[in-house]
Write a structure and sequence with these properties.
Blueprint: E1 2-6, E2 9-12, E3 17-24, E4 32-38, E5 44-51, E6 56-58, E7 66-70, E8 76-81, E9 90-97, E10 101-102, E11 106-111
Parallel strand pairs: 2-11
Antiparallel strand pairs: 1-3, 3-8, 4-5, 4-9, 5-6, 7-8, 9-10, 9-11
């Protein structure tokens, strides 16, 4: 499976962005998909996951501001990011489980 992220960019604090992750695979279902991010200080943080059954989980740092959707049979996953803060600045990577894969990342920069 190959994963390609898109939708990153520069936004002011308080603004919104929607990231997409498109999966190219012959597998009918992807067990779970999610997002990590890596900050300018190279700190990696898991932020959200959606399972094949549609269950979602979020890191406390984004809960209530970010919404994950899609994945599984849709093969495209989204991360709606609202109320963005400068500390959300990072490279955002999508991943999948069963089959396992990582995307190359998309940069999100939030200006204060």
């Amino acid at each position: 499976v190959q994963l390609v992220e898109s939708g990153g960019g520069l936004v002011e604090a308080g603004g919104s962005l929607t990231l997409s992750c498109a999966a190219s695979t012959t597998t009918a279902f992807i067990n779970a998909m999610g997002w990590y991010r890596q900050s300018p200080r190279n700190e990696r943080e898991w932020i959200a996951q959606i399972t094949r059954g549609g269950s979602t989980n979020y890191a406390d740092s984004v809960k209530g501001r970010f919404t994950i959707s899609g994945g599984s049979a849709k093969h495209t996953m989204y991360l709606q990011m609202n109320s963005l803060k400068p500390e959300d600045t990072a490279v955002y990577y999508c991943y999948s489980e069963s089959p396992s894969a990582w995307g190359r990342g998309t940069q999100v920069t939030v200006s204060s």
